[in-house]
Design a protein that fits this description.
This protein has 364 residues and is an alpha/beta fold. It is 36% helix and 17% strand. Helix 1 packs antiparallel against helix 2 and helix 11 runs parallel beside helix 13.
């Protein structure tokens, strides 16, 4: 296990006592995750290629330990500090969101995750379609819906972590499996964000065994290397989408065996320049902004900690949006539509575009 190597080979300022606590805690989490296929997963398992990410028929029920907030975030932060919490956690969700359902019914159903979250954070729930008034940490009053758009809560669930000073120190956009989610909670609660990005923190748990294309899912629409993605000298004719993956990646397999088998998705993909990179590779590339580096260095610069991460760039090499969590057909299809129709030229972000789409289609 990489945790063992980290404790004894990369300890730095971590004492043996701290290291053993770190190791034991994560061994328990990891072993519990291994039991999930038997104890939790069912026909609607979000980690199945056949998962249907259509809106749920029944509204979701939030945990009763979520804070009953008047949505004055300044007051919420002060109350969290007074009770000894490590900060507040804003949960942006929707009542019929299948990815939110996975977070609430899989991750938060686990005793260790629920207990650890309650001990360290006050969780405030916000509805990305809601009309309630939020007073943000700057004292500005705004609707939940507009606040969600302003905070780039492009996908639900989005979780924003704020430390006791009111500074945002981490965010999780989309659904992550329990092991990664628990690591994020500890990353913030133990203040590892002061020393390293989340990508480095996670790399202590597992180091990829392959740096090249070996073990990656191969597709005909991926452009072959060498990858000169420079769009600064001459604008691209089409948007660019980069798939950051790695070998032995279950979530990557789900993407390729699920969404990327649908004809609708493939039809959209045909409108893009499409590149696949190993997020840890030493393969030389030229980025859309004309910088020479390895694929792994670029992934680090982009703060990519999850695979697969799908990053979209416009004709001039500017990032438009990224999907950096578990993704299935409907979510990927919407983002492809947003980018291929140049929605980013008219709307502030994907959340803004999607809100207008839902309003136009009469969704509630």
């Amino acid at each position: 296990m990489m945790y063992v190597r980290q404790i004894f080979n990369k300890s730095g300022s971590v004492s043996i006592g701290q290291g053993m606590l770190f190791f034991i805690r994560h061994i328990v989490v990891f072993c519990t995750c291994l039991l999930l296929p038997v104890t939790v997963l069912a026909a609607d398992d979000i980690m199945s290629p056949d998962f249907n990410d259509e809106p749920t028929a029944v509204p979701l029920k939030k945990p009763d330990w979520f804070k009953l907030s008047f949505l004055d975030l300044r007051e919420d932060l002060q109350e969290a500090k007074a009770s000894g919490k490590k900060g507040i956690l804003l949960y942006f969700g929707q009542d019929h969101c299948p990815y939110c359902k996975a977070l609430l019914e899989v991750n938060f159903s686990r005793v260790d995750i629920a207990r650890y979250t309650q001990e360290n954070f006050d969780v405030i729930a916000l509805d990305t379609r809601g009309s309630r008034t939020v007073t943000d940490l700057e004292g500005r009053q705004i609707s939940e819906k507009e606040f969600s758009i302003d905070e780039n809560a492009n996908f639900t669930p989005t979780l924003l972590f704020f430390d006791p000073t009111g500074k945002e120190v981490h965010r999780m956009v989309g659904y992550y499996q329990p092991y990664t989610f628990m690591a994020a909670l500890e990353y913030v609660a133990d203040k590892h964000y002061l020393q390293q990005p989340f990508r480095d923190y996670l790399s202590r748990a597992e180091s990829p065994e392959h740096e090249g294309k070996e073990g990656l899912n191969q597709r005909d629409f991926f452009l072959p290397p060498p990858h000169n993605l420079d769009r600064t000298r001459f604008a691209g004719q089409r948007p660019l989408v980069v798939f950051f993956e790695q070998s032995k990646c279950h979530a990557c397999d789900i993407l390729h065996n699920g969404p990327l088998t649908h004809q609708d998705i493939l039809s959209h993909i045909a409108n893009f320049d499409v590149v696949q990179l190993n997020a840890w590779s030493k393969e030389p590339i030229i980025t859309p902004k004309g910088k020479r580096m390895t694929a792994g260095q670029w992934a680090e610069k982009l703060d990519i900690f999850y695979t697969p991460t799908i990053v979209f760039f416009d004709e001039h090499g500017d990032e438009i949006v990224r999907i950096a969590s578990v993704v299935h057909f409907n979510r990927l299809n919407r983002v492809l539509q947003y980018v291929s129709t140049r929605g980013y030229l008219k709307f502030r972000n994907f959340a803004d575009w999607n809100a207008e789409r839902e309003s136009r289609e009469g969704l509630k």
